[in-house]
Amino acid sequence: MTNLISDDHRVLIDGVRDYARGELLPLDRQWDKDESSCCARLAQLHEMGLMGLRVPEALGGLECPMPVYAHIIRELSYASPSVAVTIGVHSMVCEAVKMFAQPAVREALLRTLLAPDNLAAFAISEPDAGSDPGSAKTRAERAEGGWKLSGNKFWVTNGLTGRWFVVLARDRESSPRKDLNMFLLDARQDAIERRSIHGKMGIRGSETAEMRLDGAFVPADHLLGHPGDGLKIALSALDGGRIGIASQAIGIAQACVDLMVSYAKERRQFNRPIADFQAIQWMIADSQTELDASQLLIDRAALLKESGVRFTREASIAKLYASEAANRIAYRAVQIHGGTGFVNECRVEQLYRDARVTTIYEGTSEIQRLVIAREVLK
Ligand SMILES: Cc1cc2nc3c(=O)[nH]c(=O)nc-3n(C[C@H](O)[C@H](O)[C@H](O)COP(=O)(O)OP(=O)(O)OC[C@H]3O[C@@H](n4cnc5c(N)ncnc54)[C@H](O)[C@@H]3O)c2cc1C
Predict the structure, then answer these.
(1) Which domain CATH number covers 39?
(2) Residues 27-49, mean pLDDT to the nearest whole number
(3) What is the pLDDT of residues 133-169, one digit of tens each?
(4) pTM of the predicted model over 0.85
(5) Ligand 1 pocket by C-beta < 6 Å: which residues?
(6) For residue 245, what are the CA distances in angstroms to 1, 106, 369?
(7) To test ligand 1's pocket by mutation, which of 361, 369, 370, 374 has the most ligand atoms within 8 angstroms of CB?
(8) Do 224 and 311 share a domain, yes or no?
(9) pLDDT at residue 320 is higher than 80
(10) Domain CATH code at residue 283
(11) Which end of the chain is more exposed for a tag (fewer CB within 10 A), N or C?
């Protein structure tokens, strides 16, 4: 699949890989230990252009084609799954603005999202609306010059440091089938309270927050798409986001494979390296096979997205397969490390926990199967 990636993009991916492994990896271990936010590193990520990966060059972004973007998320995730999802969610919002913002404000908003201190977040889920975002209860009421939003959002990645929030809310004055709208909310106002959700199993350097909106104002031109387009926009953004989460999963999986291989060569039992045992070799072989299959599924979905073809089914297949494979691979990585892998001094212990969320967010595995089956049965 080398022809997917130009020489210039290869240089970019290699640069991200070196930076991530050299600088982010040790930090990520610390973020995991003390549950501190990787957003402390945002200024550097901005400097490297990583907050504008999918923004047009004309506006100052890197305008990476989707397959290149996916490889960059994979490299970031190898070293820090928390940084990968922070950038992934920000990029997903940039993409939604690029596709759905009103033409008069689109360029200005994209330029703003590229500037420092303008991290973006995606606030769809609510305490009672997870797999079924269409049941969102957050209200959007018309107000002088725009809208006022009230309600509770939950599980918001980038939710503490973020300034811009894509928010799904319901306009009760519209007919029931056309009442969900998507807004771009500026969180620099008093009508918003945010609280960190602590105690996560993995990706502990990634911010997760709950938000309470109490009449938060959104100007009329910050409505994305048309009234009633809210769910369509959410699902479209998630299609692209799922390629990002699949890439995050295989970054974790690649780190696991590398660690299991080096440990298997180094650890000796019965007077030989454990890599000599067929049981260990099979675990390595299965892991590499699943990793490569995942990458090919991601490349396929990313290429389709890049060429403007519908890719809902392929994105769900890539996300389902890669996230479940990453969990199997992380399990094997711990198994090959024996007792050593059970202790948090050993990185595979963290990777095992980090992998877990990839089958849950941006649609659980059950929801991916539902999407795939619906598309196949059409
Ligand atoms: C760390 C983290 C970060 C997140 N970041 C964000 C974010 O930035 N923005 C955002 O909006 N959300 C975010 N989420 C929320 C995430 O998308 C939801 O957790 C996910 O969609 C599942 O919803 P739920 O947790 O409410 O589970 P539920 O929807 O309650 O599901 C519970 C179980 O029921 C199953 N289930 C539900 N419906 C069906 C069905 N129809 N058929 C079969 N099984 C079904 C599910 O698969 C699951 O096993 C995040 C979540 C986590 C954990």
Answers:
(1) 1.10.540.10
(2) 97
(3) 999 999 999 999 999 999 999 999 999 999 999 999 9
(4) yes
(5) 89, 122-125, 130-131, 155-157, 200, 208, 357, 360-364, 366-367, 370
(6) 20, 26, 16
(7) 361
(8) no
(9) yes
(10) 1.20.140.10
(11) C
